[in-house]
UniProtKB/TrEMBL annotation:
<dbReference type="InterPro" id="IPR015422">
    <property type="entry name" value="PyrdxlP-dep_Trfase_small"/>
</dbReference>
<dbReference type="Pfam" id="PF00155">
    <property type="entry name" value="Aminotran_1_2"/>
</dbReference>
<dbReference type="InterPro" id="IPR004839">
    <property type="entry name" value="Aminotransferase_I/II_large"/>
</dbReference>
<dbReference type="InterPro" id="IPR005861">
    <property type="entry name" value="HisP_aminotrans"/>
</dbReference>
<feature type="domain" description="Aminotransferase class I/classII large">
    <location>
        <begin position="35"/>
        <end position="345"/>
    </location>
</feature>
<dbReference type="GO" id="GO:0030170">
    <property type="term" value="F:pyridoxal phosphate binding"/>
</dbReference>
<dbReference type="GO" id="GO:0004400">
    <property type="term" value="F:histidinol-phosphate transaminase activity"/>
</dbReference>
<comment type="pathway">
    <text>Amino-acid biosynthesis; L-histidine biosynthesis; L-histidine from 5-phospho-alpha-D-ribose 1-diphosphate: step 7/9.</text>
</comment>
<protein>
    <recommendedName>
        <fullName>histidinol-phosphate transaminase</fullName>
        <ecNumber>2.6.1.9</ecNumber>
    </recommendedName>
</protein>
<dbReference type="InterPro" id="IPR015421">
    <property type="entry name" value="PyrdxlP-dep_Trfase_major"/>
</dbReference>
<dbReference type="InterPro" id="IPR050106">
    <property type="entry name" value="HistidinolP_aminotransfase"/>
</dbReference>
<dbReference type="InterPro" id="IPR015424">
    <property type="entry name" value="PyrdxlP-dep_Trfase"/>
</dbReference>
<comment type="similarity">
    <text>Belongs to the class-II pyridoxal-phosphate-dependent aminotransferase family. Histidinol-phosphate aminotransferase subfamily.</text>
</comment>
<keyword id="KW-0032">Aminotransferase</keyword>
<keyword id="KW-0808">Transferase</keyword>
<dbReference type="InterPro" id="IPR001917">
    <property type="entry name" value="Aminotrans_II_pyridoxalP_BS"/>
</dbReference>
<comment type="subunit">
    <text>Homodimer.</text>
</comment>
Length: 345
């Protein structure tokens, strides 16, 4: 029998393992209910405006969706004060990451990421045969000096998550500005802002002014999964200058964003009260967690996101399994290189 042929770079890839779904835990543990604190989802559920939009959009699912996301594109452009040609939509912001790696990487190109960070950067880059250079974090923050120092003539993409997943830390305006000036044109700086709604204020950087810089190559990614509560619909977008968006569109599959997601996202953008409520709830609950951890002298990382990373110690896996048996789904972090840590939404 002939050996099955596949891309050799797939040998380096370990498939992404998401947080356990509620229904799976209920089946496995014989439980009637469970609480999911593993995937940084919005506990409020979709807003009433979104549910109404979903009902309306569902009536047209016999038709292909708008491949160019015309109305959603106009809505996002108007909301952010950018031009429509600055925007590309993805099946979640994960797909925008894949657009970048598919469009700009060839075999043996170099990609720079932090370690640990969001796992999809590594997976998407390896799929294109790239060499991924992982720079260890320092005190649970990106070591930006070391990342800039890792740039070579072969570097094509640098991924930054701001705020970061899984640590919840963030890069300040001053830190980002300093870092950007060290990065040469021709290297894509991909800034993943999946959690930016939770980090606004203080010294968090405003990045929309960066996307049209001609002397740098910057892509921003954002999502409707977190603050907007649309994780199950898979809808995100990228922001960049038109030249880069044109290139990304060349690798975007047709009809990649379904019509229900488009309608729901338009409604979600208009419901600013819902987003404010979500951010307020997260802020209040984080303070409650902090007090709880402080009372038990448990080490944790102050977070600019909707999750908290904390040190559970040598028995972290045992604690994870015990919580799971009681229907509380957390994220065990050893596969991220964070032995002894758990993450909770």
């Amino acid at each position: 029998m002939n050996k099955l042929f596949y891309k050799t770079n797939l040998e380096k890839i370990v498939p992404y393992i998401p947080g356990k779904p509620i229904e799976e835990v209920k089946r496995e543990m014989g439980l009637k209910s469970a609480v999911k604190l593993a995937s940084n989802e919005n506990p409020l559920g979709p807003s009433k405006c979104v549910l109404k939009a979903i009902e309306t959009a569902a009536k047209g699912v016999n038709r292909y969706p708008d491949g160019g996301c015309f109305y959603l594109g106009n809505a996002v452009a108007g909301k952010l004060g950018v031009k429509r040609e600055n925007i590309i939509f993805g099946n979640g912001s994960d797909e925008v990451i894949v657009f970048a790696t598919r469009a700009f990487l060839v075999s043996l190109d170099e990609v720079i990421i932090a370690s640990p960070t969001f796992l999809v950067y590594n997976l998407a880059s390896l799929l294109e045969g790239a060499i991924v250079k992982s720079v260890p974090i320092k005190n649970f923050k990106y070591d930006l000096d070391a990342m800039a120092g890792a740039v070579t003539a072969k570097t094509k993409i640098i991924f930054l998550a701001n705020p970061d997943n899984p640590t919840g830390s963030y890069i300040s305006k001053k830190e980002l500005e300093k870092f950007i000036e060290k990065i040469p044109k021709g290297v894509i700086l991909f800034i993943d802002e999946a959690y930016y709604e939770f980090a606004l204020g203080q010294d968090y950087p405003e990045t929309l002014s960066l996307i049209n810089r001609e002397d740098k190559d910057i892509i921003i990614a954002r999502t409707f999964s977190k603050a907007y509560g649309l994780a199950g619909l898979r809808i995100g977008y990228g922001l960049a200058r038109p030249e880069l968006i044109t290139i990304l569109n060349k690798v975007r599959e047709p009809f990649n964003v379904n019509s229900i997601a488009q309608g729901a996202a338009i409604a979600a953008l208009e419901d600013t009260a819902y987003v404010k409520k979500s951010v307020k709830l997260v802020s209040e609950e984080k303070e409650r967690y902090y007090k709880f951890f402080d009372s038990l002298k448990i080490e944790y990382i102050k977070s600019k996101t909707n999750f908290i990373l904390f040190r559970a110690g040598r028995k972290s896996i045992e604690i994870y399994k015990t919580l799971l048996s009681k229907g509380v789904i957390t994220r065990e972090m050893s596969h991220w290189g964070l032995e002894g840590f758990l993450r909770v939404t």
